[in-house]
TrEMBL record:
Matches recorded under InterPro entries: MFS, MFS_dom, MFS_Efflux_Transporters, MFS_trans_sf
Main location: membrane
Superkingdom classification of source: Bacteria
UniProt topology in membrane: Multi-pass membrane protein
Entry keyword Transmembrane helix: yes
Compartments, record wording: Cell membrane
Keyword Ion transport: no
Name of the protein this chain belongs to: MFS transporter, DHA1 family, arabinose polymer transporter
Domain Major facilitator superfamily (MFS) profile: 6-382
Pfam families found in the cross-reference section: MFS_1
Listed PANTHER family: PURINE EFFLUX PUMP PBUE
Chain segments annotated as transmembrane: 7-29, 35-59, 71-91, 97-121, 133-154, 160-181, 202-225, 237-257, 269-287, 293-309, 316-337, 357-375
Keywords: Cell membrane, Membrane, Transmembrane, Transmembrane helix
Native source species: Mesorhizobium australicum
Amino acid sequence: MTSRAAAYALLVGNFLIGMSVVAPAGMVGPLSADLGVSVTSAALLLTFGAVVLCIGSPLAAWGGAALDRRLLLSLSLAGLALSHVASALAPSLSGLMAVRIVAMAFAAVYTPQAAGAIAMIVPEKERAGAISFIFAGWSLAAAAGLPIAAWFASEHGWRGVHWGLAAIGLVAAAGVALSVPSGLRGAAMSLKSWGGLFSNRLVLVLLSATILSACGQFVVFPFFGPLLGDLAGATPSQIAIAFAMFGIAGFIGNIAASRIVGVLGGVRTSLLFFAMMTIGAALWSATVGSIEFVFAASMVWGAGFMASNSMQQARLAGAAPALAAAAIALNSSSLYVGQAAGSALGGVMFDGGFHRAMGWAATGAIMLALLMIWWSGRLERRR
């Protein structure tokens, strides 16, 4: 099998991971109705999943660093597929929650280890583009998978979504097992290895950028629909279109980043997409009263968000090549830390009636992330 086949297989795996993480967001209504629980209780599936992912990614990097990547990745996908079977059969929210915790433990393994695997498969000059390419699976999940899952759950039931994801998981596991070379192993992780990462100024600055950008994103994103309904008078279909535009632009931006990073380099490509995210958030905040302008702003914001996170992974792999999987695992944890902080701030602002200010708070956090990226470029040039 070629490196291209491995890249496509790893991309499909990331699509499954992305769907497994975000699908409950599109199924909260059908879940609450079918299981006889409140919407808030059903939404806890996302909260508990984020906690497991935040803790699980670095633990998986530590425990699985020296394991064969092909075996580790294929088993994580197969385990996740079986978790979706169990989810489809869950009789209650408590049972579904227990399965969700196990499923997210499997999911926590995959994305950082997949990035580390592709970094070992392709030549160094192609590494950034390859990592960005396989991360497009997440973008595809947001652009197409989430809207389809939400529609299917409302029309045919949420259990069918889990059966579909189980099938995709088995196909993805087989694809990885057949295409990823055997014998790919990273450096064994020790306390000294973690100390090396936390003493690397470039790694710390990049992780700070991830936390700030995710924080800014999630000040608004969990409240995206209610804010548009309140401030722009948007209908449910218009809100759905705004979500779709955000996701589709994210997918396109991610593919574009994988193509241009070889020409512009990691720092300039990161600056470009973080700047797009900042501009998109500012436009969204300034024009949120008009749904037509929100559509355009959502596309700019979405294109920047997905691509910027892909570039973060690629640059972290370059900042600590021997510990790439661990560095990317820390990036995943930083992403979830930012999500938790941003959604908490957003909740306080939303309940306090500061709806219009939420976009500007998001813009401020993302602008700070852009400054971190600029600083990281200066640090990189000094190395």
